Amino acid sequence: MAQGLRLSVLDQVPVPEGFTPRQALENSLDLAQHVDRLGYTRLWYSEHHAMEMLAGTAPEILIARSGAVTQRIRLGSGGIMLPHYSSLKMAEVFRMLDAMYPGRIDLGVGRAPGGGQLEAFALKRDRDAPSRDDFPQQLEELQAFLDRTRWEKHRDARGPHPFARIRVMPESATSAPRLWLLGSSMWSSVMAAQQGLPYAYAHFFFGQGTREAISHYQRNFQPSDALQTPEATIAIGAIVADTQDEAEHLHASVRLLQRRIRQDDRRPVARPEDALRELAETAAPQQQPWPVVTGPFDQPEGEFPRYVVGTPERVRERLLQVARELEIGELIVNTITHSHEARKRSYTLLAEAFELPSA
Predict the structure, then answer these.
(1) Number of domains in the chain
(2) Domain span holding position 7
(3) How does pLDDT run across 128-160, given as a tens digit for each residue?
(4) Is residue 359 part of a domain?
(5) pLDDT tens digits along 39-51
(6) Is 89 part of a structural domain of the chain?
(7) What is the mean pLDDT of the chain?
(8) CATH number at residue 276
(9) 50 in the Ramachandran plot: left (φ > 0), alpha (ψ -120 to 50) or beta?
(10) Does the pLDDT at position 280 exceed 70?
(11) Residue 302 included in any domain
């Protein structure tokens, strides 16, 4: 591998215009086998709701299915939006996945809604309760459900925590899902450092403040039973092609997708030629017209590009530079193109450029 840098994959299950969500899911399974053979370290699936352009609403189901068609790549959620669920249920789901594919399961969790305000309300665990952020409590419970010894931290004058009696099945003495904290803000950086958890920053989603978040995590990391030294990564977009012109042509689909989402336009991923036409005909919106909380996709670039686009050599050098400056040993690459074959080709060229240990 180029200078020891590990590469992984984030699959958002994009739905190309002219294709069905079912075909997008078939593409994702094909991609899973492809990147497994190419030598990528892990493959994560995102969670999004009510978006025509992204079919990945249930990462845990995709993990279960892709585990059956892959051999060695780690599989995980990038991530489970924990506020929608009970910590016990997520612990059970990922314990089950780990029992099926021992030593290969990552449980990445975040607190974003993964959709708009309406979807967040429909997914809310208790709609009658006032809005409150109990994510820190959920995270503590999730860690304890995955490691029963942690319940001792919650013992008080009345005795052990009542949940300490719960046995999360299926149990394993030799394997467990690995918990990651995901985020795109300083809040997640602070929480990951305090909890002693591995941390993944969604740089492709929010390109501002990446260095600050990673640096704070690394400087303030507190060792835990799960992790003794800080382990950080970022998810970054990349499109690789044989020529610069071809890569930039493919990138037009993502550029339009980012603009459309800010306008609450959730249509499937456009063909590059259609995207170029629409980008030329429409001005970038100055403000978000709807109360959508999917993120500022049409924002100015930060210190590092959210999408690195170009030939294998150019993308390789830029990704190595980002990793060096952030002092991280792994990058999670997100690639969206209208063409499934172009997406596979991009990951192939990138793997070859980094000399990944292919099967």
Answers:
(1) 1
(2) 2-353
(3) 777 778 999 999 999 999 999 998 888 877 888
(4) no
(5) 999 999 999 999 9
(6) yes
(7) 92
(8) 3.20.20.30
(9) left
(10) yes
(11) yes
